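Researcher: Final request for today, and then I'll write up notes for the group meeting. The sequence and the SMILES for pyridoxal-5'-phosphate follow.
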Amino acid sequence: MTAETAETAETAEAERDADANPPVRRTGDWDGDRLAALADEHDTPLYVQDLDRTRENCERLRSAFPDADVRYAVKAHTGRAVLETVREAGLDAECASAGELDRALAAGFDGDRLHYTAVNPPARDLDYVVDVAEREPDLTITAGAVDTLDRLAERGYDGRLCLRVNPGVGAGHHAKVTTGSAPKFGVPYDRATRVAREAAARFDVVGVHAHAGSGIDPDQLDSHRELVSRMGDLARDLIDPDPAVADPLDLEYVDVGGGFGVPYREDDEPLDLPAVADATREAVGDLSGLALAIEPGRYVVADAGVLLTRVNTVKPTPEETVVGVDAGMTDLLRPAMYDAYHPIRNLGGAADEPAPADREATSVTVAGPICETGDTLCRDRALSRPARGDLLAVGVAGAYGYEMANQYNSRPRPAEVALTDGEATVVRRRERLADLTTVEEAPEVGR
Ligand SMILES: *Cc1c(COP(=O)(O)O)cnc(C)c1O
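Model: Predicted protein-pyridoxal-5'-phosphate complex:
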């Protein structure tokens, strides 16, 4: 093969890969008939998580970052089926609580693939994690406060430790998820070297870590680059210090966190992952054998999930048309909490109505059944005029969707089905009213 034909073959292969594993799955790409059948069978509100797409997202990450350790931030979606899929796809698990660690263990992650990131950890969580670490000594604990290091040492922990650093730069799609510059997370950058060196007397210090908050997107690559380059400098300072000043630390990795953005809006460009990978490698600089680690959460699961909800009330008012649906902020909190945009597609189904494609676009507010003004899934959004009985697909709902679902207003949480190889399986049953009171004890008072 000549160089030129080899190149052509390579390009053709890259194009085939892009076809087989596109950088984004849009809400419009889902098979609407299939979703409608699932809603008929399992009722609404219903989460649908496509495990095949979840796996594709893992594969794209691994091929863009072939030499990096890829750790899935499990808080984005902790369902058992997702954890198993991610484990099989070769990612590690990054856990932010005892509960997440427990679930990752149950899903079969070995100790050397488990990372626990302590954020103001409750004593109960530390007790649990130190206990697990005795059985699984390859587990790594990431801590971001000297106080936390003391609390670990008090419990007899002297194992693998990674220092979380506040790099002083933050990215993020909303102030509530910008963590890189929030003092809550990590040791201040200018103290990190000293804290890491002191920690090495008590623990096996294996890495340094920073997470800039969520939302690395095409416009924010500069702050990502800055964070990464600061972390590279810090690591070099630790592994190769001025011999007059300190002994070198035997680090294994530099973890630059997650926050890989996904295109929520239909016209948002997908992240150019290979470009982000190039920028990351360039910014981190020469790591002299240290591994680079990343911790994507949202990116793994977001476009692999949709929330299906049924229209139950349509109310034209002088101000706007309010479309009432059976899913609300208890099922999908992100719009209420972050003003997050989720695409919404009308899949139709209302009696005596034409297919949604044949209806005029109408500006509507889609509101849930919760007694809160903020309980809307969108405002002033042009949808194919919704009618009572229609099914709506709320897209890009696989990350921080079910995870943030709650029982406010005494609402049982929705069901979830997982799709794999075209098969649908109920992976979380719909909660029943009786589930709302399972933890209540009979009160003494008033009896
Ligand atoms: C939440 C979190 C992540 C993942 O963030 P995404 O935006 O979902 O990629 C990674 N690392 C840490 C420490 C986190 O807290």
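Model: Residues 303-429 form a domain with the Lyase, Ornithine Decarboxylase; Chain A, domain 1 fold (CATH 2.40.37.10). Residues 33 and 347 are 8 Å apart (CA to CA).
Researcher: Thanks, that's everything.
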